[in-house]
Design a protein that fits this description.
By secondary structure, the chain is α+β, with helices and mostly antiparallel strands. The protein has a single domain, classed as PPM-type phosphatase domain (Phosphatase 2c, domain 1), CATH 3.60.40. It is built from eight helices and ten strands. A hairpin with a 2-residue loop joins strand 2 and strand 3. Helix 1 packs antiparallel against helix 3. The protein is globular, with a radius of gyration of 17 Å. The termini are close together.
């Protein structure tokens, strides 16, 4: 299994700062090529969201360089991986809360982390940044930790109502602004000729599932240049529809 990777981000129509941060790396290991990706969306309603998102991305990049080489000597232990990622997020949550108290401000960020090995994927998320799997169909692999998503799961709202609900960006938790966080962990079998998409909520609010499936399908994304071109086109479409948030996406194609 091998991978093509690309990332695109845009400040958007309204904000003065891009509070999204992201990283995607293709790595050679003893277990074969892997991809490690992190995408964080700093809270638009809070100050210094870019500080929070960058801090979490840097913390996971340190883990990638310092810990992943040792873990990848053998098959990845899912329990150990979960424990280490949770420790990073809990540590960042406390550090960002302490920073906020010192600076007299509130700051926070979503986080979605993904590791792809030769046969499996592992995802951890806090907040509403998402991971999709796209082959013949588009499948959301993460569950939004938002108020409206929780009400959909409880049967209090429909999916269609949730898309236009004024509370759709209200998070149940985020790194740095919650007293305690409870990350979700997901894992599965890695597929060949599939696109995995990480994105901030600024991307998926105004872009339909059908548009994502059409422009980012594996049959189309055969090289990094096309990934950048099509990802940038969807961002421009998103902006034309008056999306107010920063917009970021990471694309990983397996082959």
């Amino acid at each position: 299994m091998d991978f093509i990777i690309q990332a695109v981000t845009d400040i958007g129509n309204v904000k003065q700062t891009n509070q999204d941060s992201m990283s995607v790396k293709r790595l050679g290991t003893r277990q074969g090529t892997m991809v490690f990706a992190v995408l964080c969306d700093g809270m638009g309603g809070l100050s210094k969201g870019e500080v929070a998102s960058a801090a979490v991305v840097k913390a996971f990049e340190r883990w990638m360089y310092q810990k992943l080489p040792g873990l990848s000597q053998f098959s990845i232990d899912a329990v150990m991986l979960r424990n280490e990622w949770e420790q990073i997020l809990h540590s960042q949550n406390q550090e960002l809360r302490a920073y906020g108290r010192r600076m007299g401000c509130s700051l926070g960020t979503t986080a979605v982390i993904m590791l792809l090995t030769q046969d499996s994927y592992f995802i951890m998320n806090v907040g509403d940044s998402r991971v999709y799997e796209l082959d013949k169909n588009l499948c959301q692999l993460t569950a939004d930790q938002t108020l409206v998503a929780e009400e959909v799961r409880k049967g209090l709202l429909t999916e269609e109502e949730a898309k236009t609900d004024s509370r759709r960006s209200v998070l149940l938790q985020c790194v740095g602004a919650s007293e305690r966080i409870f990350p979700d962990m997901h894992s599965g079998v890695l597929k060949r000729d599939v696109v995995y998409l990480l994105c901030s909520d600024g991307f998926h609010h105004e872009i339909s599932d059908q548009e994502i499936a059409y422009y980012l399908q594996p049959a189309v994304l055969t090289d990094a240049d096309t990934m950048y071109k099509n990802g940038s086109y969807l961002i421009s479409l998103d902006k034309k529809r008056q999306e107010r948030d920063n917009i970021s996406l990471v694309m990983i194609r397996t082959f």
